[in-house]
Specification:
heterodimer; A: about 180 residues; mainly alpha; elongated; B: about 170 residues; Four Helix Bundle (Hemerythrin (Met), subunit A); 6 helices; about 85% helix
Chain lengths: ~180, ~170
């Protein structure tokens, strides 16, 4: 049987697969760690926040401070959960989209660029949630979010979105040239 | 593994790209989205049941804004989840279904089924234009249920093809 009769997928480069699998493994481990070390993580975040009362606007009144810390801890937990979910999803998406890019990119240059953008963007973006969660106890919810946005979400998420639409463009061109 | 036709892959990748973009829009343009939602509610006071009582109307607006944001959020998660699943399923169809006709039918069903997440965009838009309850009912009846059914039929068809192949081999 010829390749033309039954066209097959081309595998993505090994580093892209490795990064994607590592990301999925990190997601699994983080999911397990969130359950196993829930108390320890909350205790650490709480202690770090209490050591920085001015950052979190703690006033020394128990009722007020508890409410502020509860909200920050909910966001801290949310950041970890979002890392878990996005890393699981993006790992799979890296594997599939780099496979599409490896199969249909018009030139080796395009293939390398698309695979690099999809891999780096897809692997970097979920890490932003981990960065955000880690920054919350030190910098507060909003400042942590701003930093994570500029350091991770915008560059890596932007790279992924650009790469995905470039991939759509490549597939449309292929479809037109085939038709 | 054999690959499905290019058009099937293209549609799955478009849905994934839309899902990614929706995620960015949700986080970066949340205030603009909320402003637009409130403006559309104000432009359709009757369908949203606004009464002129500030307290009641605020509650109605808050519920509609929540429903619109939920629609966008569901679109993001379903697009990122269902499109990869359908791409893998279509690859399995290409690899194991021998009959050309059955393959074509399964591709067609899957290609439409992968559009299911767009139903949540319709859900968000319908809430704005028809009111919360009417909008949700409209999107569920005319978009989410038909497209979701096609996605399920595609997966079940693959399952039947797999079982038949296994039975034939044994």
């Amino acid at each position: 049987m010829t390749e033309g009769a039954h066209p097959t997928w081309r595998l993505p480069p090994a580093p892209a697969l490795l990064v994607a699998l590592l990301l999925i493994a990190c997601a699994e481990i983080s999911g397990a760690s969130m359950v196993r070390f829930k108390l320890e993580l909350a205790r650490w975040a709480r202690g770090t926040m209490l050591a920085r009362p001015e950052v979190h606007g703690l006033v020394g009144v128990r009722d007020v401070d508890e409410q502020i810390m509860d909200e920050a801890l909910t966001r801290f937990d949310g950041g970890l959960r979002l890392f878990h979910m996005h890393a699981e999803g993006m790992g799979t998406i890296i594997i599939l989209t780099t496979m599409v890019a490896a199969t249909w990119a018009p030139t080796p240059g395009w293939r390398r660029a698309l695979v690099a953008l999809l891999t780096a963007g897809g692997a970097g973006y979920p890490v932003g949630y981990l960065v955000w969660a880690a920054l919350i106890p030190f910098r507060g919810v909003e400042d942590g979010k701003r930093l994570a946005e500029w350091l991770v979400w915008i560059p890596f998420g932007g790279a992924t979105i650009v790469a995905m639409w470039l991939l759509v463009g490549v597939l449309v061109m292929r479809l037109r040239s085939n038709g | 593994m054999r690959r499905p036709p290019l058009v099937v892959v293209l549609i799955a990748v478009i849905v994934m790209a839309l899902g990614e973009t929706a995620g960015a829009v949700m986080s970066q343009m949340r205030p603009q989205t909320e402003r637009y939602t409130r403006a559309r509610i104000a432009a359709n006071p009757v369908v949203h049941g606004l009464t002129g009582s500030a307290e009641y109307d605020d509650e109605v607006r808050a519920r509609a804004v929540f429903a619109v944001e939920a629609g966008l959020s569901f679109f993001h998660t379903h697009a990122e989840g269902l499109a990869p699943v359908m791409l893998v399923a279509a690859t399995l169809v290409a690899s194991i279904v021998a009959s050309r006709r059955i393959r074509a039918a399964l591709y067609a069903v899957m290609m439409l089924g992968v559009l299911f997440p767009l139903g949540y965009l319709a859900y968000a838009a319908a809430v704005l234009e028809l009111g919360r309850d009417e909008g949700v009912a409209f999107a569920e009846r005319w978009v989410l249920t038909p497209l979701g059914t096609l996605a399920i039929v595609g997966i079940l068809g693959l399952l039947v093809a797999l079982a038949t192949r296994r039975a034939l081999v044994t």
